[in-house]
Write a structure and sequence with these properties.
Elements (H helix, E strand, L loop, with lengths): L2 E5 L4 H12 L3 E6 L17 E5 L5 H11 L3 E4 L8 H4 L1 H22 L4 E7 L22 H20 L2 E7 L2 E2 L8 H13 L6 E3 L5 E2 L2 E2 H11 L8 E3 L5 E2 H11 L8 E3 L17 H7 L7 H16 L1
Parallel strand pairs: 1-2, 1-4, 2-3, 4-5, 5-6, 6-11, 7-10, 8-13
Antiparallel strand pairs: 9-12
Helix pairs in contact: 1-7, 2-4, 4-5, 6-8, 6-10, 8-10
Bound molecules: NADP nicotinamide-adenine-dinucleotide phosphate and ligand G4F.
The site of ligand G4F has 23 residues, from α6.
Length: 318
Amino acid sequence: MKRALITGITGQDGSYLADFLLQKGYKVYGMVRRASTEKYERIAHAKDKITLLQGDLLDQLSLVNAVKEADPDEVYNLAAMSFVPTSWTQPVLTGEFTGLGVTRMLEAIRLVNKNIRFYQASSSEMFGKVRQSPQNENTPFHPRSPYGVAKAYGHFITVNYRESYKLFATSGILFNHESPRRGMEFVTRKITHAAASIKLKLAKELRLGNTDARRDWGYAGDYVQAMWLMLQQDKPEDYVIGTGKMHSVKNVIDVAFKHLGLDPKRYVKVDKRLFRPAEVDMLCADYTKARDKLGWEPRVTFEELIRMMVDADMERLQ
Ligand code: NAP
Ligand code: G4F
């Protein structure tokens, strides 16, 4: 039985990855940080099958102990401060969690067992003000937020530990991926939840920032398979994962509201206070390498994804 340790198991991706690895017959360990109230909604359905270990990306000893105790074949480092706007209000903490936290986890692996395979959750936010479109593994980075800068550090330290210590360390450069388990503050979920609330007369309007921004949005359930595939290869390499299709925030609004028979013009308001100090205008993945080497393809389309999220929010609110 293979063993995996997932950091960030209480998050969107961690919960889908746990489901995926359990199905594959893995013994799954999840690292969680201590809180006065437990936040395990996303893994509640699988909690009996997962072993939770306390640890924090800020605390080196807790990482060493989590790796020792789980004794994993694979570590998936998904934990991070992942919300871009907060990275401007908490830039130092973001650097600690999302950047230096990666080094701490790599050091824990180097100390405990150099044969552990390591996956780092890197981000298309590193491309930022894009130098070419679509973006692939060779596109230069120009991050536009403290979050993007911290992720670029996490990416390069992963590459560096692979080159310096011959660790099986990979960096998955994932474009935006969503699901009914997406955090409420991210734009897709904010929109699908608001559309459902308005339909049920629980809300009257939706205030958004830059609705012209364009992203390559895919389904989180598809993307965790790509993470796993990266660790099953002969050689550790970095991969771009996305759909190759770009849509605007306005497109998300249209699909979500029309799915419920609502006219978005009546409810959606642009609020300048929600614009970012520096915006990433567009992101679009060239995932040719993942398709050719991993045999990976996204399955859920943009429209299916948004409708799935609206339906789940309707069901939850009803
Ligand atoms: P998420 O839902 O925000 O989950 C983040 C997870 O990190 C949560 O489990 C959180 O735990 C944990 N965490 C935060 N700080 C921690 C700390 N100091 N110590 C231990 N755990 C900590 O994020 P996600 O969407 O699943 O994303 C997973 C990873 O992929 C993140 O690294 C994110 O930056 C990256 N990524 C995401 C996307 C995307 O579109 N979703 C795209 C590219 C890259 P709590 O529950 O305790 O808060
Ligand atoms: O949904 P978002 O907050 O996601 P963002 O900033 O692209 O980051 C997500 O994807 C990254 C991968 O590229 C991950 F690394 C990161 O962890 C996270 O999962 O915003 C998407 C776009 C932005 O351009 C934003 O300006 O939507 C625009 N937007 C417009 N109004 C809004 C809003 N975003 C949010 N969150 N809230 C709004 O009201």
